[in-house]
Amino acid sequence: MKQAGIDNWLGKRVWVIGASSGIGEACAQALLKAGAKVALSSRRVERLTHIASSHPVEQSLVLALDVTQAQQMQAAYQTILENWDGLDLLLFVSGMYIPMRADAFDIQVAERTIDANLLGPMRAVALVLPEMLKNRTGHLAIIGSVAGYSGLPKALAYGPSKAGIINFCETLYYDLQPQGVSVHLISPGFVATEATAQNDFEMPALITAEQAAKDIMAGLEQGEFDIHFPKRFTGFMKFLRILPYPIYFWILRRFVKI
Length: 258
Fold this sequence. Notes:
Family: Belongs to the short-chain dehydrogenases/reductases (SDR) family.
Structural class: alpha/beta
CATH topology: Rossmann fold
InterPro entries: NAD(P)-bd_dom_sf, SDR_fam
Number of strands: 7
Organism: Polynucleobacter meluiroseus
Order of helices and strands: EHEHEHEHEHEHEHH
GO molecular function: oxidoreductase activity
Keywords: Oxidoreductase
Shape: globular
Strand order of the largest sheet: 3-2-1-4-5-6-7
């Protein structure tokens, strides 16, 4: 049975966590343009205020927060409830990426990455899920990455954090689909953002944040669980995922020049 999509954005109440740049900012702009009410969250309040200033004041809320701080997230969600009396979509696109290989493994960086990329979404879901379950409606959309499909160079902490997100979303879908709550796993390939600007290698099938936002919106509208893009790249990564390890590692060493 297919889960529900979103057929009309007008008036929909959306919380975009990670809205100050990159994919999150592009999604926030697209949602506001489509008529949704958008709660904008990230640590950089000046960027959020700039986004909100281009739209009617009643259409957005600016809620600065750090996703590693549970009290800040609780306060932000309480503000949403007080102003909008509920939430239709949690869109969690916040995350951190620090390239790292085994010969420079830093456990403190790994801990911060897991805290932001895996525990951060879990904190947000824990906040909004009780109300969605009570109403038997709502959408949870969480950013993963093709880096979570299988082990990749320079993703020693980032990759495991995204692999955890994939598992988390799969289990959420299994549990929540019968309860009327839709779950959407978003797995981008390479998108031109502040994070990927750190990469010192060629990124195949690189797309803009605006194109990523279009793909995400389309996937949400159609009720897709697995929203991945661009498919010419993510399809290949899915294929690698099912290969025997000797072949997988041979391909990586042969074709991935990192």
